[in-house]
Amino acid sequence: MLSSKYDVVIGLEIHAELNTKTKVFCSCKNTFGEEPNTNCCPVCVGLPGALPVLNKKAVENTIKAGLSVGCSINNLAVFERKNYFYPDLSKAYQISQLVRPICIGGNIKLDNGKTIRINRIHLEEDAGKLIHKTKTIGTLVDYNRGGIPLIELVTEPDFSNADEAVEFLDKLRRTYIYSGVANCKMEEGGMRCDVNISVKPHDSKELGIRTEMKNLNSFKMVKRAIEYESKRQIEELEKGNKIIQQTRKWDDNKGKSFALRSKENSHDYRYFPDPDLLTVEITQEDVEKIRSTLPELAQDRIKKYVEIYNLPLYDAKILTNEKFVSDYFEECLNLYNNPKQISNWIMTELLKVLKDKPNCENLNEIITKENLVSILELLDSKQITRPNSKILFENICFTSKNAKDVAKELGMLSSLSDEEIKDFVKQVINTNPDAILDFEKNPNKVIMFYTGKVMALTKGKANPITTQSFIKEILPNYLKK
Amino acid sequence: MDKINITNQMNSKSQSNPQATLSNSKFFNLSAVEVIEKIKKREFTCREICEYYLNRMKELWDKNAILEIFDDALQQADNIDLMIANYYKNANPKTALSSLPKLCGLPIVIKDNILYKGKTCSCGSQFMKNYKAQYNATVIDKLLKEGVVILARANMDEFAMGGSCENSAFGACKNAFDDSRVSGGSSGGSAVAVACDMCAVALGSDTGGSIRQPSAFNGLVGIKPTYGRVSRYGLVAYVSSFDQISPIAKNVEDSALILSVIAGKDINDETSLSNNEITTSNIKNLISNKDEKNFIDNENSINIIKQAVKLSKKAVNLNGLKIGILKETQKLMQKTEYNDQYNRISQWLQNQGATLKEFSVPYFDLALPTYYTLASAEASSNLGRFDGVKYTTRSEKASNIPTASLDDVYLYSRSEGFGKEVQRRIMLGNFVLSSGYYDAYYMKALKIRRDLKNQFNEIFENCDVIIFPTAYGEAFKIGEKTTNPVEMYVEDMFTTMANILGIPAISIPCGLGKNNLPLGLQILAKANNEPVLYYLSNYMTKNYEQSKNSLATTLLNLNKTNQEKIQKEDSLC
Question: Can you give the pTM of this predicted structure?
Fold first, then answer.
């Protein structure tokens, strides 16, 4: 294979919109999906004379994001202007950070043991959005998104393939959601990724010329774009061509990247400290205060689920994929100490229901933790059968009913004593004596046959497992006869 | 160059001399304090004096000080009169006076770069000639709350870039006392409006001397307060780290009154300062009376600015005041014919009991290049938003070429929209910020700024104020310096320092030059030390003959008397 001769070197720049109540430099709401240009003010549309005023909460969230991936926090942070012309950038400059970002350093460990180093996380404002209409209408600008706080995390070029990059993104996304700083809704552009790729011959120490692909907004796109671009670069080198340093656009529909602009045409952003904003002083005390509010992160939970609750890694990952699912799991666990049983129910039953409810962010809306635990208790204490437990679940989903009441109503609760079950067993054997003859040949079939008869006779109130054990106990007496 | 059409408002007879026919009016040459008091006491109505000022503007329209008279000016005045009538109806006449707003009925003029909601704000630029302000600047809100009437917007150098008002897209503004000379700039229109009695007081903005130099050229009192004293919210930014809005006034008391209203922390401007930062330590040393000392200690911090003026009225000498003079500025003045005049000021101050001390700032002349480097850098960024896409005029050329790219729209619109000087500074700014040159220019300028700050801090350890001229001399001729931009930049030699350092500086009239035009003296103090500036300024304009003689009000009265004499002689003939 060609690729074995080459190393692929990848670095990521990941933007995430913070979930503060208001925008980063004005008091407009930080929302998504409003009518175009209804959620803006003189500051975020950059009217002459308007001045930015820093949202302290955005700084706190940035610090929190940084602490959650092991960054150091700068004691002085400076905002700078990044100057360039584009209609979605209302002031012709973006307020960003270059020399003194809020967070520096940090890392995330991949499952294969590799550590991906983080260079920095800085805070900046998002730009507006261009809407390209027909030729006669032209292009429209929506400034609602302008001024939404954005954190940009820059990694070192530590990735060697697309899977590592995607795993990093996935872990980072969980971390941001768990620390409560960002919602990372990829479909709303809440998390976007720029990819820098270069390839070099395996034995070369020098890095190759890199290309950059901007605004990839799904994990799938990142994976496909990296795989395409690294292949393209290797092919170019194989042909004896040189890689040109350039920004490329990834077209997900065509599955190809296209040259956008070369380095010669790249912007000189003419960064300089924004004179409208004061230097932000961050004391060690501030940092510690924020650190103390850091919740348990996805990585910690996965570890706990595997090591303490003995769940398979696969299950632990699925449970922690969404924080609210993991929160629900832990709430249930507080009420009922059977992690495996709870985990199974969440994974098989609740997540199935959740699939059809994309806007649901609290599993209690599907079934309260108390009700789920009730079902599990009834099941584990053999008061209801497994098939009945599923029926019971379906009956109380999205209702305010009590699980035990419904089970009683539906006549699911087993009220038979062991002696009564034994009597039923004897009764069905006596009324169907011929079936015993097959026992030596096919014992299981016979046991299931009598179990079915008992269940029918008791209308399902007998616990099938108990019933089976009694059948096994009683049948041999009949055989001797 | 088209100018806002106000022919319907204009008097057919246009005269360009300040001794206009209206000089016999009872409204003639009043200070802001007087106007407010007379309106409050109902000696005349707000409408009456507004009509007087509007007529002055029309009579002296050729001065080109005013770009537009706001069509609702008299409506605003009527509202004030109604309010006053209601106060008198409902309140005890004695308490009515004190419960009326501080600037009740005061007609003012604003510089064309301060946003007044619904009104055009063109920044003296062709590019912005149709721009309507979407909101009020903080200073406008504060002034309106205290009952001012905003009459008109005043001419200025385009985007405040210039020192003569010749860079206005709507034509140069002429000096109040000599039509062949410049008004100074960039707040030239504001200064001439006040000096010609088209209003009692006007707002200007000062980035590198834009209030002080036109004040000096027109016999006025102009202060550039400590950076942050006045909110910049709603001032179209030229150099964000230097810009300050401030009053241009006929006397020191008016200046202090207006500043005390517009100063203060604004939640919309991070760089604005709390009034609590204002210090009185310098003037306390000058006051021997114990009661007055206690009074200052207990006074609300912002009132200190006004109190400084009051206290200086009672002062009989300047004992205890330590005044610094700089070797470098003296050397610069030696070449000029005004040197002796400025030396006499020093002598007089000593006679009044002040101690004079000479200091040296070896890199004084670096202030100018430092200013132009930092100013251009910030301006290039601040003016980026004027791109022909949003509110500034889009180039028709770009619209007519079907193949025009987005870059073409920017290029054509900005090339057509901005004047030469603005384009020059944008290019200069982009250059000093561009990669490869950033360290050599922008960074170096920041370092020099820091060094100069340190040097001045050291000097202020040993003196209360520093004095030097506001400009090299009297107002120069229109067109005299337009061919060489650097020559024009050099005009700012004495004024940019205060902006670079962020310290307060005031310009007061200090005598007449060889052309009988006013000269300006600049007084600088440490940050937050406005009270001492007002104390000394008021003392000088009340006690120093040369200062008194060169005040615009004095010159205006003199003109009036002369004219009356001529008229009398004419009638005798």
Answer: 0.88
